[in-house]
Design brief:
Elements: H1 21-55, H2 66-72, H3 77-107, H4 113-120, H5 128-139, H6 144-151, H7 167-195, H8 199-207, H9 212-223, H10 225-240, H11 244-250, H12 257-267, H13 271-295, H14 300-305
Helix pairs in contact: 1-13, 2-13, 3-7, 3-10, 5-7, 5-11, 7-10, 7-11, 8-9, 10-13, 12-13
Length: 306
């Protein structure tokens, strides 16, 4: 027989009431998300608020639109926007198409497919600046590409791909380097999405006579929409922040928003205008994220499958 504990006054102490199971289920997700929320608040939200304040202050600390006006009047402002948008429009679709093709090859179960996976994943272990330096050794005047052209007799002295006199070749070189550097990230996201799609859907479509392209278009891509949404959001945000590869290959001959942010902060010593540029990057990123979330809206059933 168990005797209930008593207080000093001789009264029976009441045992603490157990926490209802339903309440624990309600609070558990928030407890799991708490570390991530704290991390995001400390390293993203707070710096973003500080940048927002800097963007509307002058050098004396008073609130002013002078930084925004100086940014809008900068000779490279609209050129940086144009180059950043063009780079995003060219690079992101190319990366998605290449990553989807690579993922489908990996899912085909071919012999030796693991070698392709390791080879295609190499850029994941290379930093942005290192990738830019690799492609600089290819496109520079005495680089590997010009050596091949001269060796094959296609050119006498090579071609100045990175000269300021050839802005188109500079842009293409940066686009190629940026595509190579980050396609592996998109591939990993899409490959993870393909691996959780039940094979029964494709097998049923094949039984009904669907071709390979029809299975990809009408079965794989709709079920892969959640992964495509994530990949597009991440890559577009990172494309708007392209910096190290551009600096390594083109320096300031190809103005982009992130490069102008660094120029105003590091070279011109004006953090207020730099913060205004950073706010432009953030606005572009938020706008594109909203477009992707609406255009690639995912239903609960698709989330459950993927």
């Amino acid at each position: 027989m168990t005797v209930a504990p008593t207080t000093a006054a001789g009264q029976i102490a009441q045992a603490p009431a157990p926490v209802p199971r339903g309440r624990r289920r309600e609070t558990a997700p928030y407890l799991l998300l708490a570390p991530t929320i704290l991390f995001m608040a400390a390293f993203f939200l707070w710096p973003m608020l500080q940048a927002l304040v800097l963007a509307v202050q002058d050098s004396s600390g008073a609130f002013s639109l002078e930084p925004i006006q100086r940014m809008a009047g900068d000779a490279k402002f609209f050129e940086a926007i144009r180059n950043t948008v063009l780079l995003t429009v060219v690079v992101v679709p190319a990366q998605v198409i290449l990553a989807l093709a690579m993922s489908l090859v990996l899912m085909a179960g071919l012999r030796g497919v693991g070698v392709f996976l390791y080879a295609w994943a190499i850029p994941l272990g290379i930093s942005d600046l290192a990738a830019g330096l690799v492609w600089l050794s290819i496109f520079t005047d005495r680089g590997y590409l010009n050596s091949v052209l001269v060796g094959l007799g296609l050119s006498e002295v090579g071609f100045s791909f990175l000269s300021y006199e050839h802005p188109v070749s500079i842009f293409l070189a940066v686009a190629v380097a940026e595509t190579w550097r980050a396609t592996a990230l998109v591939m990993v996201i899409l490959l993870a999405g393909l691996q959780v799609i039940p094979k029964e859907y494709a097998e049923a479509a094949e039984v009904f006579g669907a071709t390979t392209w029809q299975r990809i278009r009408h079965v794989t891509l709709p079920l892969l929409r959640p992964s495509l949404q994530v990949a597009l959001i991440i890559r577009t945000i990172l494309a708007f922040q392209a910096f190290a590869v551009v600096i390594a290959l083109a320096a300031y001959n190809l103005p982009v928003l992130a490069g102008e942010t660094y120029r105003w902060y590091g070279d011109l010593r004006n953090p207020h205008v730099a913060a205004a540029y950073a706010m432009v990057i953030m606005l572009f990123s938020l706008a594109n994220t909203g477009i992707y979330l609406r255009a690639l809206r995912v239903s609960d059933e698709q989330v459950g499958i993927s």
